[in-house]
């Protein structure tokens, strides 16, 4: 666990409280698997993401994925960036508050790799004085400057799209009272207590209400990003993107209760990844090989999954230790060089789509640490398709 506490992510205190309450819960709900959903279902009909309306003089939707330099959740930031950039019909920018690298952290707060982004918010504002059409907000610290910039973008009629517990950042803006929204299941009690005027909505992977779109935990960034492509560029483009990233559907249908701690079903796997694995075993280093042209979502989900086991910490490596450029132009700074004689286990995922990469990581975790640990990671990611 990283020493710094990020209010927008899965915190040990929240998980501990959930585990204590597990015995009071009813029987587990059945998880809805994407493969059981109709692949051709229109996400905009189910989640009511408003169709994009171009502003005068604007031929492409302008999208900013924003991060506070001190740290963003790696999958929350890179998965939407990768999927939206892949569409090829959108103007997508990775934006930081200040110049300099963007630090990342993983689902349980471990430090991740660093990224050199496209631009700062000041540079973005200079190029787009009328504001973005959409601002993607990953889980991160809700700093005053970030809140101020999001309020500015909202006043300029941007739609705020929060990923996972990025919803807590948007909630702190104070402009979305009375709206429907969702976030990671683990923050449910905190959200309801701190922001009671927001209608927190379970059992949807993403929710759209006016100019706020919000998603459930981690893996929900995949269907929500495809749904956003559909809202902007149409169903045919969304189907193309879904196939390209390995998704079978992008429905908002979800069963939130299937992922929270329940005795006899989910409590044990969650306890393993949060507590007992590290208490009993320590954490093994796992090297993940980076490569020029690698999909950002593939990279993020692989690193994130292997760092959520409680048994392992993933490190981004390259053959030279030098930075490399991803599929959509981000410059990524590896943690270290992979030495030819290294005995550290190596994971390669550069040729996989994001969904395939997450499945491969979960399968690799299951082979190395057992089914319960892999299930715990899937539960933490709110990933309904484990195992395939």
From TrEMBL:
InterPro entries: Class_I_gatase-like, DJ-1/PfpI, INH-QAR. Keywords: Signal. It comes from the Bacteria. The keyword Nucleus does not apply. Residues 28-47 are annotated as: Disordered. Residues 1-22 form the signal peptide. Coiled coil: none annotated. Residues 70-229 form the DJ-1/PfpI domain. This is AraC family transcriptional regulator. It comes from Stenotrophomonas chelatiphaga.
């Amino acid at each position: 666990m990283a020493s710094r506490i990020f209010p927008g992510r899965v915190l040990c205190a929240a998980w501990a409280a959930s585990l204590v309450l597990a015995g009071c819960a009813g029987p587990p709900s059945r998880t809805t698997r994407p493969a059981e959903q109709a692949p051709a279902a229109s996400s905009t009909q189910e989640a009511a993401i408003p169709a994009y309306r171009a502003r005068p003089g604007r031929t492409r939707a302008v999208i900013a994925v924003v991060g506070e330099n001190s740290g963003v959740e790696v999958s929350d930031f890179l998965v939407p960036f990768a999927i939206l950039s892949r569409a090829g019909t959108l103007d997508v920018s990775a934006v930081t508050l200040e110049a300099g690298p963007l630090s990342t952290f993983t689902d349980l707060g471990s430090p991740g790799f660093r990224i050199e982004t496209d631009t700062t918010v000041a540079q973005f504002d200079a190029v787009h004085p009328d504001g973005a059409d959409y601002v993607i907000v990953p889980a991160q610290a809700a700093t005053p400057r970030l809140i101020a910039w999001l309020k500015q973008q909202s006043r300029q009629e941007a739609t705020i799209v929060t990923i996972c517990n990025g919803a807590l950042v948007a909630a702190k803006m104070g402009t979305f009272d009375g709206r429907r929204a969702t976030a990671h299941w683990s923050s449910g009690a905190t959200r309801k207590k701190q922001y009671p005027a927001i209608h927190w909505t379970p059992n949807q992977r993403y929710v759209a209400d006016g100019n706020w779109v919000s998603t459930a935990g981690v893996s929900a960034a995949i269907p929500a990003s495809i749904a956003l492509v559909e809202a902007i560029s149409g169903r045919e483009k969304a189907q193309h993107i879904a196939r390209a990233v390995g998704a079978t559907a992008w429905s908002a249908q979800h069963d939130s209760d299937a992922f929270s701690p329940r005795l006899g079903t989910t409590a044990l796997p969650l306890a393993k990844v949060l507590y007992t694995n590290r208490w009993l075993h320590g954490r093994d280093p796992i090297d993940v090989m980076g490569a020029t042209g690698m999909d950002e979502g593939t990279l993020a989900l692989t690193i994130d999954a292997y760092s959520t086991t409680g048994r392992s910490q993933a490190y981004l490596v390259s053959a030279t230790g030098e930075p490399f450029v991803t599929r959509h132009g981000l410059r990524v700074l590896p943690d270290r060089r992979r030495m030819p004689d290294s005995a550290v286990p190596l994971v390669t995922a550069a040729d996989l789509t994001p969904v395939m990469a997450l499945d491969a990581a979960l399968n690799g975790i299951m082979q190395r640490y057992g089914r319960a640990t892999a299930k715990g990671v899937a539960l933490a990611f709110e990933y309904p398709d484990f195992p395939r």
